[in-house]
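ESCALATION

Customer reports they have been waiting on this structure for their group meeting. Please prioritize. Original submission:
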Amino acid sequence: MKKKIAILLILGLGVIKINAQIGVNTSNPQAAFHVDGAKDNPATGVPTAAQQTNDVAVTQQGRVGIGTIAPTNSLEVDSRVAGASGVKMTRLPSATTLATDASGNVISGNTEDAGVSVTKLRLAVASPSLVLNSGSGAYSFRYTSTNTGGTWQIRINTGATRQFNIWDTEYSGQNGTGASDTVWQLRTVKNLALNTWTALDDNIAGGANEYNVYHVYDLSTGTILRLTVTLSSVSGIRESMILEEF
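Update from on-call: job pushed to the front of the queue and completed.
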């Protein structure tokens, strides 16, 4: 008889364990494991969207919700702020493009597995303080002036001094007829020092009707960068940069 009672108790405890919901800072858990960070959930009923902002939940399906108690995927983060993911990845470089490798790991877009990463700056008021970083964060570019007459520069942010091949195709035209259009093509070899701004070429950016395409090849890492830049006279001198990293 005692054995039967013991078996029933074990089975009963097993059922309780399976069906139990654990709440931290709440007596009204809404998932298998539910943390109410701000202790603002109601004693009964479902928390409002605002109350869920500080909640973390793990469902019976093994899904994890941050900012939501009803995640619809393995991990769902709801910041409750339009345009904000609520996720911060501290060790990825600024202006990076996220990608996944062959194993599904989230990585910076500048990898052989990910292919091409693209960063861009569109029609911003020209200023040397505006810096466009590559997806990997290893390279930076800028224009050196707030007006015409500046130069386009590169800075390497990792590694040591090394050699680069730089090709520049530059288009400059005075009107829409093509009568005064000029095209320059130039190839240079430069040794670039770490954390030092260096002109991509020796040409001066002539005017607001100029368009350059730079192909930059890092002989040490094998990285190829294609930088397309323009100056535009829209409400003052404005610069645009599109950077592709292969």
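Sent to customer with the following note: Residues 13-18, 110-114 have pLDDT under 50 and may be disordered.
Escalation resolved.
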